[in-house]
Amino acid sequence: MKIVLQRVSKASVSVEDKITGKIENGYLALLGISDNDDKEKAEKAVDKISKLRIFPDSNGKTNLSSIEIDGELLVVSQFTLYADCKKGNRPSFINAGSPSHAEKIYNYFIEYAKQKFKKVESGIFGADMKVELINDGPFTLILEDGNGL
C-alpha cells in the first residue's frame, strides 16, 4: 500500500465534470494498492492516518490529529503510485494490484475510514478523475510499507 497524504483546507474529485467527492479541512489520500495488500493493512493505514498529529494547535504547532479537529477525508485511487520507471521512458505498472483486488481493498479502506473520520468522500475506482485541492502548509506525506505503515 502506498499513500500520498496531503493536508488540505479543501479538496474535490470529479468524473466527467461531476463532483463525486468534496471535503474541507482534512486529508486528501491518493491510494495505491498492490496484490499484497489486505483488509488488515487497510485498517492499519486508516488508523495511522487518523492519529497522525499534523494539524496546528492554538499555538500553530503541528500537534493535533484529524480526530481532534473533526477532520474529513477524500480518498482517490491511484495505481500510478506503483509506477516502475527504472527501465526506459515508459513506466511499468506490474507492481500495482489487479483491478478486482485493488477495488475490493479500496472500498474496504473507505468503509473502515468512515468509522474514524467525521466525513469520508471518494473518487470512482478506475475512472479518469480530476482532483482539485488547496494543500494546507503545504503538508504532504508519503506512507508505504516500511515508512509509516
UniProtKB/TrEMBL annotation:
Entry EC no(s)? 3.1.1.96, 3.1.1.-
Q: Provide an example Pfam family for this protein.
A: Tyr_Deacylase
* Major localization listed first in the record, in broad terms: cytoplasm
One GO MF annotation is: Ser(Gly)-tRNA(Ala) hydrolase activity
Q: Which GO terms describe its cellular component?
A: cytoplasm
Q: What is this protein called?
A: D-aminoacyl-tRNA deacylase
Where's the motif Gly-cisPro motif, important for rejection of L-amino acids? 137-138
Q: Which HAMAP family match?
A: Deacylase_Dtd
One Gene Ontology term from the biological process aspect of the record = D-amino acid catabolic process
Q: Which residues form a coiled coil?
A: none
In UniProt terms, what function does this protein have?
A: An aminoacyl-tRNA editing enzyme that deacylates mischarged D-aminoacyl-tRNAs. Also deacylates mischarged glycyl-tRNA(Ala), protecting cells against glycine mischarging by AlaRS. Acts via tRNA-based rather than protein-based catalysis; rejects L-amino acids rather than detecting D-amino acids in the active site. By recycling D-aminoacyl-tRNA to D-amino acids and free tRNA molecules, this enzyme counteracts the toxicity associated with the formation of D-aminoacyl-tRNA entities in vivo and helps enforce protein L-homochirality.
What organism does the UniProt record list as the source?
Monoglobus pectinilyticus
Q: How does it assemble?
A: Homodimer.
The subcellular location is: Cytoplasm
The highest taxon in the source lineage is Bacteria
What does the record give as the reaction this protein catalyses?
glycyl-tRNA(Ala) + H2O = tRNA(Ala) + glycine + H(+); a D-aminoacyl-tRNA + H2O = a tRNA + a D-alpha-amino acid + H(+)
Domain commentary: A Gly-cisPro motif from one monomer fits into the active site of the other monomer to allow specific chiral rejection of L-amino acids.
Q: Provide the alphabetized UniProt keywords.
A: Cytoplasm, Hydrolase, RNA-binding, tRNA-binding
Task: Report the family membership.
Answer: Belongs to the DTD family.
